[in-house]
Amino acid sequence: MSVxxxxxxxxxxxxxxxxxxxGVRTVLAAVRSTxxxxxxxxxxxxxxxxxxxxxxxxxxxxxxxxxxxxAGCKVLYTEDMHDGLVIDRLTIxxxxxxxx
Length: 100
Description:
Helix content is 53%, strand content 9%. The protein has helices at residues 3-15, 21-34, 42-55, 59-70; strands at residues 75-77, 86-87, 90-93. Strand 2 (86-87) and strand 3 (90-93) form a beta hairpin. The mean pLDDT is 92.
């Protein structure tokens, strides 16, 4: 999981759902204890920019895809990107789409 995903969860939980900071920290701690978190590095950043440009996605999504690729993931589950898109050997899947 990308650090960007953790950041986006924290922002969404606070802004849209009004979750208190203690709740945000509790959820993030649980996620970090069960998932491997990929650090945002200069390599991730450069690849993320290249992917964002090549696939016409926003920078933040590019960083998430880059982190998944660098971690060796085969599937990236997200509702924010094109379901079924294959980026090199990484397939984007929307878990809420039919067949996802």
